[in-house]
Amino acid sequence: MLDAFLVPANSIVTAKGDSETLEITGSVSRVFLLTLSITSVVEQEAIDIFVYTSADGSTWETKAVAGMEQKFYPGEYPLLVDLSEKPDAKFVRAHWDVYRWGRGSTAPQFQISVRLREVSAEVLREAAVAGV
After folding, report:
1. Does residue 5 contact residue 93 with C-beta atoms inside 8 Å?
2. What tens digit of pLDDT does each residue of 28-44 get?
């Protein structure tokens, strides 16, 4: 079961950027739980998180396969990412955009982590049976 951090815990983000590339060819279910953890923020700022795929690890799709609504506050935010319809996707990475407005410094600063965990086929079957 794939379980990896795209962005390690307590990483400081002050500008837009991309995570390390993660190979997903060993995954069985092709359904993943992406969790954004925000542990620290400054006031009047926002972060967007997107997931991109690649067939070769160097050329990335121009359109994100998943995206999370803007976040403003500390907390844990889950997002289910289903890549079962993208059999050519062999690599993933997270991309983030950050914004800050208001008075004072306009430099954003988030302390975050982004974790990607494969959802087991058993859990997916149980959810289907339960009608979730």
Report:
1. no
2. 889 999 999 999 998 89
